[in-house]
Structures are given as structure tokens and as C-alpha cells.
From TrEMBL:
PANTHER family: GENOME ASSEMBLY, CHROMOSOME: A01, REACTIVE OXYGEN SPECIES MODULATOR 1. The chain crosses the membrane at residues 12-35, 47-69. GO terms for cellular component: TIM23 mitochondrial import inner membrane translocase complex. Keywords: Membrane, Transmembrane, Transmembrane helix. It holds the Pfam family Romo1. GO terms for biological process: protein import into mitochondrial matrix; protein insertion into mitochondrial inner membrane. InterPro entries: Romo1/Mgr2 (IPR018450). It comes from the Eukaryota. This is Reactive oxygen species modulator 1.
């Protein structure tokens, strides 16, 4: 039972770290792209938000899956 909780906490921690890291990278990349593409006015905020959330979700998913695979060993 202790092993399951340990494995579950490792997966949750991996997902959280992946989400935080992906969000930071997504915010930087989204800001750069919004400026480079010349996104008008308040649409920049929407564009940056979309790239931030998308990057956080994808990177969190992959880091969580990697933690799950690593936990099975």
C-alpha cells in the first residue's frame, strides 16, 4: 500500500512540475510569437494564454506519463 501512494505522489509531482515548466516556456514562447506576428491589441493576451495553457498541458502530460513508466520499474 505504501508503494502505491509513493508511486501516485511521484506521478502527481511529475505532472505538476511538467505543468509549471511547460507553462513558463509557453508564456515566453507565446509572448515572443505574439510580438513577432503582430497580434493586435488585447488579442495578444488571449494568444499568450492559449500557448501557455497548451504547453503546460502537453508537457505536464508527458512528464506525468514518464513518471508513471519510471514508477513501474
Amino acid at each position: 500500500m505504501a508503494r502505491e501512494n509513493s508511486c501516485l505522489s511521484r506521478i502527481a509531482a511529475g505532472t505538476a512540475i511538467g505543468g509549471a515548466l511547460g507553462g513558463a516556456v509557453g508564456a515566453v514562447h507565446g509572448t515572443y510569437q505574439a510580438i513577432r506576428l503582430g497580434v493586435p491589441g488585447l488579442m495578444k493576451i488571449r494568444y499568450i494564454g492559449q500557448t501557455t495553457i497548451g504547453s503546460a498541458a502537453i508537457f505536464g502530460l508527458f512528464l506525468g506519463a514518464g513518471s508513471l513508466i519510471h514508477c513501474g520499474k
